[in-house]
Amino acid sequence: MLISNIINYLEEIAPPGLQENYDNSGLLVGDVGAEITGILISLDCIEASIHEAIAQNCNLVVAHHPIIFSGLKRFNNANYVQRTVQLAIKNDVAIYAIHTNLDNIYNHGVNSKIAERLGLVNTRVLVPRTEELLKLVTYCPVNSAEAIKAALFKSGAGNIGRYSECSFSTMGKGTFKAGIGANPFVGEIGIRHTENEEKIEVLLHKHQLNKVLEALKVAHPYEEVAYEMYALLNSDENIGSGMIGELQDELSIHDFLTHLKSSMNLEVIKYTKFSKSIKKIAICGGSGAFLLPQAKSSGADVYVTSDFKYHEFFDAEDSLMICDIGHYESEKFTIDLLYDILREKFTTFAVLKTAVNTNPVKYFI
User: What confidence tens digit (pLDDT) does each residue in 198-220 have?
Assistant: First the structure.
């Protein structure tokens, strides 16, 4: 089993094209062709993580946060980033980051894990992306339609929410006139030909475009493949920022805070005043202050996230309660999420959860 097999599987679940522009997810250090010996899963990858991987005979660290966000101009052990990268390279330990692409998916994502911990129901993405969906329209001989649809579905097209292999077809007539140098089997040069054709329409995500078009061209019998691509204004309800859901039962503020502290295994919660009971919960793992307006407009009673600045707490304005639980604390169960994903798929080598607490923030209580 190669490191590339692990990466390919993770990127089926959280495609790298879904990461934010500022992010640096993907293979940061290492050789995709190396044979895997074991995987260590961590929220962050620091020097201690590499030492732990070496001790556990793991040559791949899968971390949520990238150790490298911007370019490194020097490797001289000047800071923890350089030291971590150098240590990994010296010991043939690969580092793979799966960050905002894992944040931005509904199924098996960071926020779905938080929602699971809190016991939320009726969950949905808080702010779905509106620039993600495309519609592919192509035309083919009727007897080739099923093979082409199968190839498109296999490449990832045709998924709508919880449904797969979705398409729409109509029958029609296609015409063409073969020119000099055209495939001699398609018809006589200079004569207009008519063909019974099927028009196939499927939806796909923007990040799937190249893969889907490649599959179409391989499966299509025509020398020149006719297709159209449309950008849609539809939002993708399974991709986007944050999540919102409901508690099974309405709770008082005290009972909710107790539930939150217990469910997320917290030492401390920073929160704003609120005057109503709690039912509807908005969440965002990591730094989520940017979603406060959407959390308020969604009708949420509470917004659970982290990294609010002092003056940003005033923006709650008693329309909801902000619960800042800490960055590490909001995402630490991502380790369990990735462990479950990989352990279920790969059973021939060790998949381990880190024993190192990488949280740089300590609390004196």
Answer: 999 999 999 899 999 999 999 99
In this structure, the answer to whether residues 192 and 141 fall within a common structural domain is yes
Handedness of CA 145, 151, 154, 159 (dihedral sign): negative
Signed CA dihedral, 317, 320, 324, 330: sign only: negative
Q: Kindly indicate the confidence band of residue 186, based on its pLDDT and cuts at 50, 70 and 90.
A: low
Q: Which helix (H) or strand (E) holds 125?
A: strand 121-129
* 153-167, 183-197, 242-256, 296-310, range with the lowest pLDDT: 183-197
The answer to whether 67 and 98 have CB atoms below 8 angstroms apart is: no
Quote the number of domains for the chain.
3
Calculate the CA dihedral of residues 303, 308, 311, 313 and round it to 10 degrees.
20
Q: Tell me the backbone φ, ψ of residue 306, rounded to 5 degrees.
A: -155, 175
Note the pTM of the prediction, 2 decimals: 0.87
Which band of pLDDT confidence, cut at 50, 70 and 90, is reported for residue 129? confident
Cβ atoms of residues 64 and 337 within 8 Å = no
Does residue 313 share a domain with residue 257? yes
For 67-92, b/e burial (b = at least 16 CB within 10 A) is bbeeeeeeeeeeeebbbbbbbbeeee
* Per-chain mean pLDDT for the chain: 94
Last residue of a domain, one of 218, 234, 250: 234
In this structure, are residues 133 and 215 in contact, taking their beta carbons and an 8 Å threshold? Answer: no
Does 18 share its domain with 96?
A: yes
- Domain harbouring 339, CATH code: 3.40.1390.30
Residue 189 to residue 182: CA distance in whole angstroms:
8
- Answer yes or no: is 360 within a domain: no
Residue 365 lies in a domain: no
**Domain range enclosing 186:** 133-234
